[in-house]
Amino acid sequence: MSEQTSSPSPARPAKVIKSEQEWKIQLTPMEFRVLRQAATEPPHVGEYTDTTTEGVYSCKACGAELFRSTEKFESHCGWPSFFAPLAKDTVVYHTDHLLGYPRTEVRCATCDSHLGHVFSGEGYDTPTDLRYCINSIAMTLTPAPEA
Ligand SMILES: [Zn+2]
């Protein structure tokens, strides 16, 4: 998952680096807790859990495009779920052991904010067998223009 051989996508914005104090001013307290302190919003309450609107999900902290509605699927887990990010290099991965077992954390590649976790091998009928379990509050959906 961490191979560096792919070429970066052209739309990739420059890295965003801010102090925790700057993030605190920009974000709401709950956004700050999730994006900068890796908290998890409660299940089934997030704005985008069951959203089927077509569009692009961007990072709430820096605006980088992260996921698309075309890779979103119904996982019934209580959080928005995607089987792949918008592009390989829009997110980065960190393994954490906060619950006593390894989990793969997903962060925004542009500003290093926490987004959620990715789980594999759960048997969902998707092309990747991956579930990117992402906090709604970490993203902003920009609906696609009407065709
Ligand atoms: Zn970001």
The hetero molecules present are: zinc ion
What characterizes the major β-sheet?
A: 6 strands, antiparallel
In percent, how helical is the residue content?
Answer: 10-25%
Tell me the radius of gyration. Answer: 15 Å
What are the segments in which pLDDT stays under 50 over at least 5 consecutive residues?
1-5
Which quaternary structure do these chains form? single chain
- CATH top level is Mainly Beta
Tell me the span between the first and last alpha carbons.
Answer: 35 Å
The topology string of helices and strands comes to HHEEEEEEEEE
Q: Helical stretch count? A: 2
CATH homologous superfamily classification: Peptide methionine sulfoxide reductase
Overall morphology? globular
Name the features:
globular; mainly beta; Metal Binding Protein, Guanine Nucleotide Exchange Factor, Chain A; binds zinc ion; three-stranded antiparallel β-sheet; disordered N terminus; 147 residues
What does this structure look like?
The protein is mainly beta and 147 residues long. It has one domain: Metal Binding Protein, Guanine Nucleotide Exchange Factor, Chain A (Beta Complex). Helix content is 11%, strand content 29%. The chain has two helices and nine strands; from the N terminus they run ααβββββββββ. The strands form two sheets. A six-stranded antiparallel beta sheet has the order 3-4-8-7-6-5. The chain has a three-stranded antiparallel beta sheet with strand order 2-1-9, with no helix packed on it. The longest helix is centred in the N-terminal third of the chain and has 9 residues. The N terminus is likely disordered. The site of zinc ion (ZN) has 8 residues, from loops.
